[in-house]
Design the sequence.
């Protein structure tokens, strides 16, 4: 019960107690007064009337007229004259209908007046003529008591309301710091760390200071753990000199791409080599050579960013001292990328004419998703050896085989635009559901993977998403997916069986204000199923649009949805304002969960620490891309709460 309600109860109870006490005292006092006055009136009027009757002739008519005259003018209930033999000489009583009562009967019973009637002797000379009984009308006393009591009650009621309102206002002012403390506690529960202004009230001042101190300590602890984890992550996954992925982490990313059925598109692996790096190192020295490698890395990163709209993912790595690689997933136009890369390699080489031994052979291999990693690396090594022999800046490029869906795809930009716009207009976007379970095989939710229908055939996201992203249509596909999932859940709700579904949104949808608002409106129109919806955004997208993601998360969480980060791990511990997001769950990237049983202790330690960091801020941690059922039983020991991938059925 709130303090305001308790205050009202306390004020009401106190006022009732005061009212009852005051009413009892005042009513008893008034009752005693009225009884005394009515008794005196009865005695006085009886004595005066008896004296008059004793001194006059005892003519029956005259006696009756005198008694009637007294009765009519004195507000009496009864005047009776009884002779010595007990016979009634004169009797006057009022009729109850003559005066309407203005007080309830229960009140008269509550404050019953015990008024003694007036008694006097009427003499006829030396003989007794009779006994006179006078009883005044007490209804007027009851009416006066009732009026006084009612006014008393009204004033107490008004006083109670005024005191309650005034007390409520005073309480709200005094407890405002307490409200801040409550909001602060709720923020901590939501994994947000805020501080409250210290109030002047001594008792609240101590509480607020303690809460602020605790909040700051927890925040510093998590930030320290995040920094430590980021250092461990970088050391585990990256080359210390260039900052690119190391060989082990790149191979995990490569396996995750090949094992991900949502990435069944066209992929290209580009490998570059610093030929005669040992001679360059001897010629320049250690530090200039390191600077040269960093400069070369910067060229690779810039060209990848320049063509980011032509592929869904890019993975850069330094495999060893002299070999660099770029893996492009679901590319749309590889020719322009390779031509630009050739020019950049030539420019880079011309910038260092002092290095006669500088030779940068490069090879590129397009491969199907179904191909094995070993065969791909074997062929790219052969192409790289061929490039070393020709000693030119031309990149040796080869296609392993045609991808199954390529023959069905348009061969130009306009064709893709027409195809995708037709899909949007016909609302041919369909969700395909895959289970996400906890480590005890209990269902957590289903992942809604995007599919489209073209000419009666269903195509995976990798078939069209790169072109949808390049043409700026990806937000519309996300919106259609949300609408279709919400519609499905509403239909299930009517049947009484609603499943929980996770929807993955792109960074383009977060950055598109109009689409973002339409997604929110769609969810607002189905508030009954919002608690069954999990909204997730890839970690890379969160990094690109942190503010939009935080605003969007707060909005959809207010509707009852849960919010999480998908494909997390590479930069999770370094996300800005991590504690302010208020996440509910985390899906760890498949590159970190590949062959965990065969990973080194340092990598497993990083995964365990990452799960621990997620748990410390109240997140569920789910492993993505798990392919072996035997691994599921090992995941709880690393800190995972759930699992998804081919091994989950």
Sequence:
């Amino acid at each position: 019960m709130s303090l305001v309600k308790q205050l009202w109860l306390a004020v009401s109870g106190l006022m009732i107690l005061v009212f009852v006490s005051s009413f009892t005292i005042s009513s008893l006092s008034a009752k005693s007064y009225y009884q005394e006055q009515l008794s005196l009136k009865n005695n006085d009027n009886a004595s005066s009337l008896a004296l008059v009757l004793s001194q006059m002739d005892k003519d029956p008519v005259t006696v009756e007229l005198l008694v009637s005259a007294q009765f009519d003018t004195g507000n009496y209930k009864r005047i009776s004259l009884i002779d010595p033999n007990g016979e009634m000489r004169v009797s006057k009583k009022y009729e109850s209908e003559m005066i309407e009562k203005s007080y309830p009967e229960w009140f008269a019973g509550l404050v019953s007046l015990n008024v003694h009637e007036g008694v006097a002797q009427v003499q006829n000379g030396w003989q007794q003529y009779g006994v006179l009984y006078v009883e005044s009308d007490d209804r007027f006393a009851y009416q006066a008591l009732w009026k006084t009591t009612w006014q008393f009650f009204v004033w107490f009621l008004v006083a109670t309301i005024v005191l309650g309102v005034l007390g409520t206002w005073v309480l709200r002012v005094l407890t405002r710091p307490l409200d801040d403390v409550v909001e602060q506690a709720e923020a901590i529960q939501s994994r947000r760390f805020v501080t409250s202004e210290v109030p002047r009230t001594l008792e609240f001042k101590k509480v607020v200071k303690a809460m602020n101190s605790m909040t700051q300590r927890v925040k510093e602890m998590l930030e320290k753990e995040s920094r430590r984890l980021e250092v461990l992550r970088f050391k585990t996954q990256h080359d210390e000199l260039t900052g690119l992925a190391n060989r082990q982490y790149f191979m995990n990313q490569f396996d995750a791409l090949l094992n991900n059925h949502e990435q069944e598109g066209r992929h290209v692996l580009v490998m570059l080599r610093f030929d005669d790096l040992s001679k360059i190192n001897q010629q320049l020295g250690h530090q200039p050579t390191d600077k040269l490698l960093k400069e070369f890395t910067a060229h690779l990163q810039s060209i990848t960013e320049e063509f980011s709209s032509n592929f869904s993912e890019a993975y850069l790595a330094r495999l060893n001292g002299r070999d660099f690689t770029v893996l492009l997933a679901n590319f749309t136009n590889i020719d322009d990328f390779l031509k630009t890369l050739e020019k950049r390699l030539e420019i880079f080489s011309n910038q260092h004419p002092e290095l006669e031994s500088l030779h940068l052979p490069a090879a590129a291999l397009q491969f199907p998703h179904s191909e094995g990693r070993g065969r791909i690396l074997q062929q790219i090594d052969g192409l790289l050896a061929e490039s070393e022999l020709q000693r030119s800046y031309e990149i040796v490029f080869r296609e392993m085989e045609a991808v199954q869906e390529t023959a069905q795809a348009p061969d130009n930009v306009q064709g893709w635009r027409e195809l995708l716009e037709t899909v949007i207009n016909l609302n041919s976007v369909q969700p395909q559901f895959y289970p996400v379970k906890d480590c005890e095989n209990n269902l957590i939710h289903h992942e809604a993977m995007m599919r489209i229908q073209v000419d009666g055939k269903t195509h995976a996201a990798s078939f069209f998403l790169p072109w949808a992203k390049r043409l700026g249509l990806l937000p519309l596909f996300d919106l259609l997916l949300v609408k279709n999932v919400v519609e499905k859940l509403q239909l299930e709700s009517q049947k009484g069986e609603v499943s929980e579904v996770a929807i993955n949104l792109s960074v383009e949808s977060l950055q598109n204000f109009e689409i973002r608002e339409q997604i929110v409106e769609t969810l607002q129109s189905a508030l009954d199923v919002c608690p069954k919806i999990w909204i997730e955004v890839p970690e890379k997208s969160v990094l690109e649009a942190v503010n939009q993601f935080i605003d969007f998360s707060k909005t959809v969480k207010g509707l009852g949805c849960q919010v999480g980060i998908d494909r997390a791990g590479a930069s999770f511990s370094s996300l800005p304002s991590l504690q302010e997001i208020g996440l509910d769950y985390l899906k760890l990237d498949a590159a970190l969960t590949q062959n965990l049983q065969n990973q080194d202790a340092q990598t497993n330690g990083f995964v365990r620490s990452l799960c621990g960091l997620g748990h410390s801020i109240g997140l569920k941690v789910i492993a993505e891309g798990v392919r072996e059922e035997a691994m599921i039983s090992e995941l709880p020991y690393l800190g995972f709460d759930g699992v998804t991938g081919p091994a989950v059925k």
Notes: The longest strand covers residues 443-454. Residues 402-407 have pLDDT under 50 and may be disordered. The two ends are 47 Å apart (CA to CA).
